[in-house]
TrEMBL record:
The lineage of its organism: Eukaryota, Metazoa, Ecdysozoa, Nematoda, Chromadorea. It is found in: Cell projection, Cilium membrane. An odorant receptor which affects chemotaxis to the volatile odorant diacetyl. Specifies AWA neuronal cell fate via the odr-7 pathway. Interacts with odr-4. It comes from Caenorhabditis nigoni. It comes from the Eukaryota. InterPro entries: 7TM_GPCR_serpentine_rcpt_Str (IPR019428). GO terms for biological process: chemotaxis; olfactory behavior. The chain crosses the membrane at residues 20-44, 65-89, 101-127, 147-169, 215-236, 265-289. It holds the Pfam family 7TM_GPCR_Str. This is Serpentine receptor class r-10. It is a multi-pass membrane protein.
Length: 355
């Protein structure tokens, strides 16, 4: 009886959240696109010359975030945990113009962008450290080797997709395990959804729980990618910070402009690291760890999905307001708009005076 009441409450909450989802996704997509377009303009027009080729990596990141936010809006996924499974799904309308294969591809692409974002974050820290260590730069990033930073996200995308295809795709066992949950909570049949789900355990012949090897192998590969990114952030980030402090104390006033610019870029990057950690990595980590140890989280609402949707909205802001030249560019833009309105108002007043 208690279980039925819980599922009824979850069913009502789920439908309420799904109605709100489209508004959140639409607002997130529009704001994120505007902010990232503005940031691209600032990077291309207002970047100091000493920023060098880092501009390319910054523009690449902004373009990726525009792709990410459009994919997030198109996929409109929901993430929830059920027992010892994590589920990422989207509603699919049978016999619609959108084939089921495309619907599934949207779910997979949505998951893969998480791995790509980890690689992009690591690429930024590798580059920032290389600027402060000439030996490291010449050994690993000089010449065409610099473009390896742009290739890393696509390598991670292929790797992450392979892991998903190996251990996350639905099968008869996962369908049977989840179908009642989809119907009771979301009022959706299996033919109305596209989903991926690492199901960490399965029932043995005696009804006991046994490890579901493909899911664990797939998750282990994903954790390797996450760990490699975290290593770059923590290890290279700390060394980069120490090098910047050293350069600021030793260099002349002329050279301090360059060191101060590196400090601004590093500070912006640190905040850009905190944002996805809080909005993406920690919530998703909790969502994966609990089913791995067979702790039932219950219904998640759209908390994780909505938190992830905020990421591309907030992420451009540190660069726009911490980097001095970009901040000045925004102020100049608003001042210019204010002057145009003032001139337009004076012209209109003058015309009224002559009438």
């Amino acid at each position: 009886m208690t279980t039925k009441l819980i599922y009824k409450a979850e069913h009502e909450t789920a439908h309420s959240d799904l109605r709100m989802a489209s508004y959140i996704q639409l607002a997130s997509t529009c704001v994120s696109l505007l902010l990232n377009i503005l940031l691209c303009w600032l990077i291309l027009k207002k970047s100091p010359k000493k920023m060098g080729s880092y501009k390319q990596l910054m523009v690449f990141t902004s373009v990726f975030e525009m792709y990410y936010t459009m994919l997030d809006g198109a996929a409109d996924v929901t993430v929830f945990a059920h027992g010892f499974a994590v589920v990422v799904f989207r509603e699919y309308v049978p016999n619609s113009l959108l084939p089921s294969s495309v619907s599934m591809a949207l779910v997979i692409a949505y998951c893969v962008t998480f791995g790509m974002s980890m690689a992009i974050l690591a690429s930024h820290f590798v580059y920032r450290y290389s600027v402060t260590d000439s030996t490291f730069h010449h050994r690993y990033l000089s010449g065409k080797k610099y473009y390896l930073l742009f290739m890393a996200p696509f390598v991670y995308a292929i790797w992450w997709t392979s892991a998903l295809m190996y251990g996350y795709l639905p099968n008869a066992e996962s369908d049977e395990y989840l179908k009642a949950r989809f119907l009771d909570t979301f009022d959706l049949r299996l033919d109305q959804i596209s989903y991926v789900s690492p199901k960490f355990y399965k029932y043995g012949s005696q009804g006991e729980l046994v490890f579901n090897a493909p899911a664990w192998v797939a998750v282990a590969n994903c954790l390797m990618m996450v760990t490699s990114s975290i290593f770059c952030v923590l290890y290279l980030g700390s060394k980069c910070y120490l090098n910047i402090r050293k350069h600021l104390s030793l260099q002349s006033e002329t050279s301090k402009f360059s060191a101060n610019l590196q400090k601004q870029l590093f500070n912006a990057l640190v905040i850009q690291t905190i944002i996805p950690v809080v909005l993406m990595y920690l919530p998703i980590l909790v969502f994966f760890l609990c089913p791995m140890i067979n702790v039932n989280l219950g219904y998640s609402s759209r908390f994780v999905s909505d938190m992830v949707a905020l990421y591309p909205v907030i992420d451009p802001l540190p660069n726009m307001f911490i980097i001095k030249s970009y901040r000045k560019g925004i102020i100049e833009m608003f001042n210019c708009c204010g002057r145009k309105q003032e001139v337009g108002g004076n012209s209109f007043s003058a015309k009224l005076g002559t009438i």
